Amino acid sequence: MTTNEMYEKSEHDDARLTGCAAPGRHWFGLSGTLRTLETLLTIARWGALAWTAQAVLDRAAVRETRGLVAFAVTGMLAVGADWTADTLADRGARAVATGLRRQLTGALLPTAGRISETGPAEAAWAMVDLADDVADFHAQAAPLRRSAPLSMLAVLAVTAAVHWPAAIVLVLTTALLPLNMRLAGLFAQHGADRQAAATRHLNAVVLDSFRGLRTLRELGAVGRRGRTLTTAAEQLNKATMSVLRCAFLSGLVMDVVITFSIAVNATYIGLSLLGYAQVPHAPRLDLFTGLLVLLVCPMYFAPVRARAAAFHQRERATNAAGVIRDIVKDTPAQVTHRARPQSAEPVGVSLTAVRFRYGGADQDTIRADADFAPGTWTVITGVSGSGKSTLLSLIGGLRRPSAGEVRWRTSSVRREPTLGGCAWVGQRTVLLDATVRDNIRLGLPAATEQQILRAVDAAGLNAVVEGLPEGLNTRLGEGGRGVSTGEARRIAIARAFLRGARLWLLDEPTAHLDADSEREVVEALRRATDGCTVVIATHSFTPAAAADTVLTIDDGLLRAARPVNAR
């Protein structure tokens, strides 16, 4: 990468990172103003302390008392300004993090026709960690952009007014600091990139390990996966230590420069007070001026130290903003929710020369040409991993085909799949820690009691509800504690029934059920989907026996398996 390309990339990264601060900019501005006020109050506090010391030396009791009072008052005001500035910066950080999480939510959830292919590990990482990385950086850096120049100028002006040779020393040493920060930044960028990549890899390995723990145990691969986790953790540790070493070394160089500047001023002031050194045309030093210069000189470098800390954090925030941008870049600025089709007739499905290939794959996962007639049951079979769930996601609009087209059709309309326009029942039923009624109502939050009871009846839940301690008001534990797996599936069917969709997509709806429970779920589906178009991906014979048509996916190709007599 050429120097110009690196400069353009840096400018682009800066603009992207700065844009993330918009929701908290007002709070950051107020925080920066209070930081400047804190500096002025602290200068006044040290002036009061130096005044008090001079009064003690001069044995002036009245001035001594006034100096102590002024020191106490300005000290309390400075602490108040510091606390308020921190509070405002935190409020701004929360606004930034909330804004980023809203963008991520809009990108990760299937809305406005935007389908996210972001993996769950990276999605969780972006939501939990990366949004906070960006927000924390702005909470530290944004107020400094306003307060640092003004604070340093105020300290320099006071120092020059009291004793200008000391101000010259501060100016000369300041020139060395930007070079140190620039060099540190070149190393920090590389380290931050490695750390982000290692974190992403470790997140993915941990998530995959938890998901496949049972399979790993059955295959005897737990030990091997443990070694993979250890390797990924060591890579992250090395990347993190590299970043910390860079921060430590650049901080060490900065501390040497700052300490040298303060030491030069302290030595000069000490020798001047003792009468051993005197700069021509410089004002005479006394205890008040000498002590004030010594007290405010470290304040001159405080914003620089804070900027240096934020500078290292900036590289991490830049990487975080880049990952977030990659996730949300295709999301419309204003998300528009397309209306669900309200047709009273069943919705047929047409797959025309459909091909789907995952990014980076060498061959198509699915190749399909098929028509699912309105009002029919179609079962799709195939070995695990053959692409049954992928095909359902294409029909439901959760993914777009790499080639060809998927269309929903009625007697009067032919259109692309509409997100949220079909009912989906998966093999894993999500039940909240809430009542049975509330879990069913998730399908239609505004559902009336009559609609809920009709859904209960359609799903064959009447006997189940009557057997619960408080009926529909019975509270289920998180994950469905209190009902069996088959009963949980029927709650999911009742929930789907409430949506009123005329197209149902079911992914292994009878998985992990015994024969009796499987039969009850299929019967519930038959009642709930009367007159609807149903597409089921399954390994089980029971749903297949109830189907009008059975298709199979063989080596990625969807083909007819056998005809089944119509119901």
Helix content: 55-70%
Q: SSE order, as H and E?
A: HHHHHHHHHEEEHEEEHHHHEHEHEE
**Largest beta-sheet details:** 6 strands, mixed
What is the tally of beta strands?
10
Reading off the top of the CATH hierarchy, the class of the largest domain is best stated as Mainly Alpha
Radius of gyration: 34 Å
Percentage of β-strand residues? 5-15%
The low-confidence parts are 1-7, 332-341, 563-567
List the total number of helices: 16
Distance N to C terminus: 66 Å
Specify the overall morphology.
elongated
Class derived from helix and strand content? alpha/beta
Overall mean pLDDT stands at 79
Quick synopsis:
With 567 residues, the chain is an alpha/beta fold. It has helices at residues 3-19, 25-58, 61-108, 120-162, 164-174, 177-211, 213-219, 222-274, 287-328, 388-396, 436-441, 449-458, 462-467, 485-499, 515-528, 541-545, and strands spanning 348-356, 366-372, 377-381, 403-409, 414-415, 423-425, 503-507, 533-537, 549-554, 557-563. The chain folds into 2 domains: 20-328, ABC transporter transmembrane region fold; 348-563, Rossmann fold (3-Layer(aba) Sandwich).
Features:
567 residues; alpha/beta; ABC transporter transmembrane region fold; Rossmann fold; 2 domains; elongated; disordered N terminus
Written overview of the protein:
The protein is of the alpha/beta class. The chain has two domains: 20-328, Up-down Bundle (ABC transporter transmembrane region fold); 348-563, Rossmann fold (3-Layer(aba) Sandwich), CATH 3.40.50. Helix content is 63%, strand content 10%. The protein has 16 helices and ten strands. It has helices at 3-19, 25-58, 61-108, 120-162, 164-174, 177-211, 213-219, 222-274, 287-328, 388-396, 436-441, 449-458, 462-467, 485-499, 515-528, 541-545, and strands spanning 348-356, 366-372, 377-381, 403-409, 414-415, 423-425, 503-507, 533-537, 549-554, 557-563. The strands form two sheets. A six-stranded mixed β-sheet has the order 6-7-8-3-9-10, sandwiched between helices. Helix 4 packs antiparallel against helix 9, helix 6 runs antiparallel to helix 8 and helix 12 (449-458) packs across helix 14 (485-499). The longest helix has 53 residues, at 222-274. It starts with a helix and ends with a strand. The model is unreliable at 1-7, 332-341 and 563-567 (pLDDT under 50).
